[in-house]
Prior knowledge:
The protein has 3 helices and 3 strands; from the N terminus they run αβββαα. It has helices at about 10-20, 50-60, 65-70, and strands at about 20-25, 30-35, 40. β1 (about 20-25) and β2 (about 30-35) form a beta hairpin.
Amino acid sequence: MAPIGPIKRKDLIRYLNELGWVGPSSGGKHQYMKKDGLTLTIPNPHKSDISKPLLLKILKQAGIGREEWEAL
Length: 72
């Protein structure tokens, strides 16, 4: 289960891959992932985890619901 909360970047990418997103690919200042014509920007690696508010913003942009995310 993937809880809604702080998450490591590599775990975010792994879960997005499980949901059918392809990448990450390099481009511009940030990497991105693609699925069905949508492009999702991925935060750059930092020492700290991705915060809950940023994770919620990413999930909203990706069209991933809370139930779908927590079912992983």
